[in-house]
Design goal:
This protein is mainly α. The chain has two domains: 85 residues, Alpha Horseshoe (Serine Threonine Protein Phosphatase 5, Tetratricopeptide repeat); 82 residues, Serine Threonine Protein Phosphatase 5, Tetratricopeptide repeat, CATH 1.25.40. The protein is elongated. It starts with 5 loop residues before the first helix and ends with a helix.
Length: 193
């Protein structure tokens, strides 16, 4: 198996992802670039594993506030996902969601909204409306509307997300509590208008 084998690329990418989750950013870029080089040489630039590495590298830049570096990588990861899995696959929804959250963080709400709507539609159709990814998509879209002070659009999305989360996870689950807090905050903002 040599140092340029796809399994080595996978190990490097997994290690990079672990470091990302732990907030240990120093080594992530080098690990991702090494994995990316291996995958591009052995699997090709449009392979899903290449897209996964691009996503991790984009996330590193996103987490560090380097949005201009993250954007083209998230866009490329979305394109790869669409080509590899199709436009209606949960992986494509996840890629659309992360790109949308980048746009939201930059205040580019017009670019974010259709991507979040798309992610919600894909997740609900492919995974079902009660799936955690569907609930996450609801809360992300509601968060976008909330950020724009479009509280009337956000409210039914958060209500749905809260009802599903309470039913599926229970009222004391951390995700349910987080959605409930977001909903309470929204209601307070609506009452101050």
């Amino acid at each position: 198996m040599g140092s340029h084998h796809p399994k080595v690329g996978g190990a490097l990418n997994n290690l990079a992802q672990l470091y990302l989750e732990q907030g240990i950013y120093d080594a992530v870029e080098a690990l991702c670039n090494r994995a990316l080089d291996i995958y591009q040489r052995t699997l090709g630039p449009d392979h899903p594993e290449t897209g996964r590495v691009l996503h991790n590298l984009a996330r590193l830049y996103y987490d560090q506030g380097q949005y201009t570096q993250a954007e083209p990588l998230y866009q490329q990861a979305l394109t790869i996902s669409e080509q590899a899995f199709g436009p209606h696959h949960p992986n494509t929804a996840a890629a659309a969601n992360t790109l949308a959250l980048l746009y939201k963080a930059q205040g580019q709400y017009v670019q974010a909204e259709p991507l979040l709507q798309r992610a919600l539609t894909i997740n609900e159709k492919s995974l079902g409306p009660n799936h955690p990814n569907s609930v996450r998509a609801l809360t992300n879209l509601a968060g976008l509307y909330k950020a724009q002070e479009q509280y009337v659009q956000a409210e039914p999305l958060l209500q749905r997300a809260l009802a599903i989360s309470e039913q599926v996870l229970g009222p004391d689950h951390p995700n349910t509590v987080s959605i409930a807090e977001s909903y309470i905050d929204l209601r307070q903002k609506m009452n101050h208008e």
